[in-house]
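Tutorial sheet, problem 5. The six components below are modelled jointly, 942 residues in total.
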Amino acid sequence: MELTHINEQGRAKMVDVSKKQETVREAIARGNIYMKKETLEKIKEGTIKKGDVLSVAQVSGIMAAKKTSDIIPMCHPIMISGCDIVFTLNFEENKIEITSTVKCTGQTGVEMEALTAVTAAGLTIYDMCKAIDKEMAISDVVLLKKTGGKTGLFERK
Amino acid sequence: MELTHINEQGRAKMVDVSKKQETVREAIARGNIYMKKETLEKIKEGTIKKGDVLSVAQVSGIMAAKKTSDIIPMCHPIMISGCDIVFTLNFEENKIEITSTVKCTGQTGVEMEALTAVTAAGLTIYDMCKAIDKEMAISDVVLLKKTGGKTGLFERK
Amino acid sequence: MELTHINEQGRAKMVDVSKKQETVREAIARGNIYMKKETLEKIKEGTIKKGDVLSVAQVSGIMAAKKTSDIIPMCHPIMISGCDIVFTLNFEENKIEITSTVKCTGQTGVEMEALTAVTAAGLTIYDMCKAIDKEMAISDVVLLKKTGGKTGLFERK
Amino acid sequence: MELTHINEQGRAKMVDVSKKQETVREAIARGNIYMKKETLEKIKEGTIKKGDVLSVAQVSGIMAAKKTSDIIPMCHPIMISGCDIVFTLNFEENKIEITSTVKCTGQTGVEMEALTAVTAAGLTIYDMCKAIDKEMAISDVVLLKKTGGKTGLFERK
Amino acid sequence: MELTHINEQGRAKMVDVSKKQETVREAIARGNIYMKKETLEKIKEGTIKKGDVLSVAQVSGIMAAKKTSDIIPMCHPIMISGCDIVFTLNFEENKIEITSTVKCTGQTGVEMEALTAVTAAGLTIYDMCKAIDKEMAISDVVLLKKTGGKTGLFERK
Amino acid sequence: MELTHINEQGRAKMVDVSKKQETVREAIARGNIYMKKETLEKIKEGTIKKGDVLSVAQVSGIMAAKKTSDIIPMCHPIMISGCDIVFTLNFEENKIEITSTVKCTGQTGVEMEALTAVTAAGLTIYDMCKAIDKEMAISDVVLLKKTGGKTGLFERK
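Model answer (structure tokens):
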């Protein structure tokens, strides 16, 4: 199989999707941000009392999903029709699991939008906690599932 | 130690850095994107012959570094004075290591710019290869080193 | 009735509109900018002779309408299909009335686009006249009317 | 006194500030968003329990402050060094008072940044509550105070 | 024939296209960048060995095509469905010919997107070579052909 | 002489300017847009009566100058301190001459900002007149002069 983004001069192009069908498409992506236990506790306190780091991360992830085609050079502009992000605090592994879901009706999928939402949310958590923890790591950012389009269902094993 | 981005109403603010000194600052970040061996080989062929996925990833990472304060809500706008990205293909672990270096002279550091460059480059590699490999994973995105500013040198152990 | 933008974790989400029908939608918004009589006279002179503050405000309002989903976090991206702004100088109340009309064919309305156009045009008038009048006030920014979509016609009483 | 943004051809220009001194500058702006009592109560509930509309408005205001020179055509790009927004719920007048404070060290002031933050925060409140209240009005958006620069202190009477 | 972008107050508006039909549309634009023979040779070396100026120009042109409605005030936002750029080195005239092709399915054409891609690619070549040649000139930027829409085929004679 | 934007891996980088001195810098660029005589007459009428195409082109050029580092991948972000554009209608050659002047105080020059302003203004003229003239051509976009920085004065012969 060949890379599809390369033109005859060997340079990148935006693949022509004008003959693809408009279908409802959904993508779910996930990633983790690992941190010190103390950092995770600070974040948890904030979600209970005041200073919710995760609500800022949520906004940044959703806004980044809308900016995806401005960040990823060969991405088609897409009018996403829905976006949500869910955070799961995991005190056993000292991490926050970030899961994004993006939907659209269009000629091309929203995998990149979902992945971009996860990384932007992770970067925002890093930014807001870096004064107390510079060793956080964003990891395991993967596409969990996508539906719609010619290739149909993909689910990560 | 307390989170610094939270105002008295418990909401996020952009921290006031107007009394911080302008110093030369540098940050180095790194991350990996894991993929199938075949995908890594396709990318390697491109760098030798034609269709260089990594040159597009490079451009996207540098452009994303400039957009950092537009992606991360509480980040200060920064005029970065230099940015470079280096890719290392690793056939033992079937991954590409992405290392970014960002510089500025300013009142606040460029850690987030370096981390944003790495993730954008990783997402671009994903985008350009996803037709042949949807199981790629972006992992281990960390700050390796930063210099300058009040807190001075940080080096990841 | 409940706020619709909140997910189960109590955080903001972009509401899923993928099952909404595509209809022709229009929204009309209005606002006033109050100023000193002398400022209003300067602006009027400009529209007659040279230096048309309002033509810059017009451009800024139309461009801001296109940027709405980049400014308002939970707004869906929308391809607006038309936008116009009309200014009415009122020397009795020393104000300029700014009225915007925005159209689209889509799954969600253009109310926010119309309101954003009015505020951007008002802010631009402020910016271009602030050297002679810092006491201007933007007021009464409201949605006058919207048509299309499931909820149909809304008209402000 | 003359409008300063007009060139010899009678068209807008970005005023040359290259001979102005770099000073610390601050601007405080304020505005109100009026709504139904029920809407105000819903928002208050959210700040106590879940679904904090105001934390999204806060993020949007701060991000809009950074985008000011992209929204207001003749505004100079500015590296703001701090930004905060405070909301005051007023049940007597059924309004939320939005107050923004913006700082920078530069050749030109941050009045437009502070005003833009207030209007973006107001528009975001409108967006998140418009399903239950389309008659909200953004009003009284004014510059309260600015310090720094050649003209020094301005305080609204 | 009259200019269509002017409203009754004599100011610019975004023309209402909401009654236009959605058709497949394509536009091809072309331009030249003239330079010293030595500069052209340096660029050619890069495409053979390392340091491909044209691959960066390619990325910038495609990304600029996506940003067109953010650069050209009265342009409608468009979801382009494909974009490619081809470079032809001409050693007789010491120029690079830049040809862009843009496609979409929509209510309005992609002429401006194709022209914007050409100019951004040209400006990027200028930027990357200006250390060795400040006398480059971007010239002859024209629309070669467009198809689709009410006015149908246009071909430059 | 070598191209400066290429790193050791043969890919583009943003050149490190952190050791360059901050100086006052100015750049003047020029370009022409050729058109039918009738188009030029329509534009002239607009500048006398109503519907000033050139005032929209002016705004777009100035706003594009501010967006330069977002359009040209390896450009440093720059806080321009002034920008103006002048249009000269030439009925002998049926063209409009577009001249931009950009200033900044910084570590790197504003040549690209001046060139970007000229091309954006030209593209906007094209956009607003394309309903009556699709054969317009943007030509002769060159840097006329730049001052400041290590290389000092450049003047096009």
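Marking note: The first helix of chain D runs from residue 37 to 48. Full credit if you identified this.
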